[in-house]
Amino acid sequence: MRDLKTEKLSKNAVDFIDDALLEGLLDNARPDKARVREIIAKSLNKEPLSLVETADLLAADEPELVDEIFAAARELKRKVYGNRIVLFAPLYIGNKCVNDCRYCAFRRSNENAIRRTLSHDEVRQQIEALENVGHKRLILVFGEHPDYNADYVAEIVRLVYSVKVGHGSIRRVNINAAPLNHDEFKKVKQAGIGTYQIFQETYHHETYAKMHPSDTRKGDYLWRLDGLNRAMEAGLDDIGIGALFGLTDWRFEVLGLVSHSLYLQERYGVGPHTISFPRLRPAGGVNLGEDYLVGDYDFKRLVAILRLSVPYTGMILTAREEPELRREVMAFGVSQIDAGSRIEIGGYTEAGDAQVMEREQFTLGDIRSLDEIVHELLSDEYIPSWCTACYRLGRTGEHFMEFAIPGFIKQYCTPNALSTLTEYLVDYASDETRTAGEKTIRTELDKLPDSPQKTELISRLKRIRETDDRDLYF
Ligand code: SAM
Ligand code: SF4
Fold first, then answer.
1. φ, ψ for residue 91 (rounded to 5)?
2. 393, part of any domain
3. Stretch 9-13: mean pLDDT
4. Full DSSP string of 257-319
5. How far is the CA of 97 from the centre of ligand 2 (A)?
6. Based on the domain organization, do 345 and 204 belong to the same domain?
7. Domain membership flag for residue 222
8. Which one of 361, 362, 363 would you pick to mutate in the ligand 1 pocket, going by the greatest count of ligand atoms within 8 A of its CB?
9. Number of domains into which the chain is organized
10. 98, 199, 216, 316: residue to mutate for ligand 1 pocket, most atoms within 8 A of CB
């Protein structure tokens, strides 16, 4: 096992989270009506908010103002992202772990956890099962362990891309794993990964120290906070941040996420590609008390405020949440969700519908199938999308202006969403979902202005229906 003392941090690495400053902003926030409305207007103008402005929104708890914040988040989502929702699935590769995070069932001191790492054949079987229901985008999840080093992660990524059944293929593999050093990030990038996610879990130093014993790798706050800087220096410019809500005051964590985002933007000219905001779930042997658990109402507030503060960052809502809440929160600016998820190791072929505590990291709130979720999205007038075009065409990082270029959505995102939806309907959907999907496609095509590109799109959709041609994107 390597020694963190000899590892190199990024150039001029600093711990840019100042707890006293963030707490001061929360204590001195000014949530009066005029001020809150002024901040909302700035955000609707698609300008990122400062920490002070975010703190003011966090302090606004009058129901009338909270409703205005919700309404603004809904409007901004429509303005910036349109009605697409990108779908993915998590794939847990192995749960061996040298860390002892107090909230996680994979922690090393949990003797009840059944430790397992998928063999190559088992990975293949999981991928086949995922492709057979229509998935195209995955996030691979690993515990932190010497067995899961960068060479291993890269090998698994290549394996995943190589598996193809029928018209199925995995076109984008994201990673959620431990922070790496520069050379290791380069290795996983070479394997063709999309986003590398590292959640800080909690930005609050004292809480961080309580949750992550100091004699563990994850006990080093700065090594983790600096992780994505090393990724950027290694040329991996597609990165995701996140906080695990339920460990300390949720308002503090929102300021932590916004600080992180502003820091990356300032230092590299590009912010995080995605923000995740998982809420703590029941997990084997975990009992952290209820002091900081975030209720549904506050959860909605935090999602809406994040949307307003970082208007151009993708937001990921996971199946940790129950179906009804997911449906509601989706409208506040979520751009990606997982669907049909199983998080037991081997869960896509083995576990059936039951969730088995000893085999998973935590329990999920939404275990509906991909088809059920696609059907619900269509009924709610979203376009389910499996688009992977931007990252495959190199439209990432500072060159990636997806949401800043006027017309980008009409030019690329909607056509690509409709192509991937057509693939799904032809190859995998139930009859009911196919009917709903065809209706959505007609409606969305009607909304697109006539152009040579629209003609080309219509001809491509026909090719997908009538031939084996797939993976056509702009
Ligand atoms: N082991 C790597 C790490 O810790 O960075 C990879 C990620 S871990 C397997 C995935 C994420 O699950 C963690 O970053 C944490 O935020 C989240 N998680 C852990 N325990 C959880 C729980 N009880 N409820 C909800 N999310 C949890
Ligand atoms: Fe290990 Fe990650 Fe779980 Fe912590 S959160 S115990 S590092 S798997």
1. -130, 115
2. no
3. 95
4. HHHHHHHHHHHHS---SEEE-PBP---TT----STTPPPHHHHHHHHHHHHHHSTTSEEEE-T
5. 6
6. yes
7. yes
8. 361
9. 2
10. 199
Question: Is the distance from the beta carbon of residue 244 to the nearest atom of ligand 1 less than 6 Å?
Answer: yes
Amino acid (one-letter) located at 431: D
Domain presence at residue 257: yes
Q: What is the pLDDT of residues 333-369, one digit of tens each?
A: 899 999 999 998 999 998 655 566 677 778 899 999 9
Instruction: Tell me how far the alpha carbon of residue 135 is from its chain's centroid.
Output: 16
User: Is 27 a domain residue?
Assistant: no
Q: Are residues 131 and 258 in the same domain?
A: yes
- Ligand 1 proximity of 320 Cβ (cutoff 6 Å): yes
Length of the chain: 474
Q: For residues 465 and 467, what is the distance between their CA atoms, to the nearest angstrom?
A: 6
Q: Whose CA is nearest to atom 20 of ligand 1?
A: 104
Q: 262-294: string of b/e by CB count within 10 Å (b at 16+)?
A: bbbbeebebbbbbbbbbbbbebbebeeeeebeb
Domain boundary among 345, 368, 391: 368
Consecutive H or E run containing 338:
strand 336-338
Q: Are 121 and 372 in contact (CB under 8 A)?
A: no
Same domain, 299 and 410: no
Q: What pLDDT, in 10s, does the model give residues 42-75?
A: 999 989 999 999 999 999 999 999 999 999 999 9
Q: How close is the Cα of 365 to the center of ligand 2, in Å?
A: 20
Alpha carbon of 243 to ligand 1 centroid (Å): 10
Ligand 1 mean position, distance from CA 436 (Å): 35
Residue 212 sits in the same domain as residue 286: yes
Ligand nearest to the CA of 287: 1
Give the three-class secondary structure for 88.
strand
Q: What's the CATH number where 357 sits?
A: 3.20.20.70
Q: Pocket around ligand 2: residues whose beta carbon is below 6 Å from it?
A: 97, 99, 101, 104, 106-107, 143-144, 218
Please give the Cα distance from 65 to 34 (Å, whole number).
10
From 326, 347, 368, give the residue that closes a domain. 368
pLDDT at 82: 86
Both structure tokens of 88: 């993915």
Q: Are residues 293 and 171 in the same domain?
A: yes
Quick check: CB of 413 below 6 Å from ligand 1? no
| Co-location of 327 and 438 in the same domain | no
The boundaries of the domain holding residue 136 are: 4-17+77-368
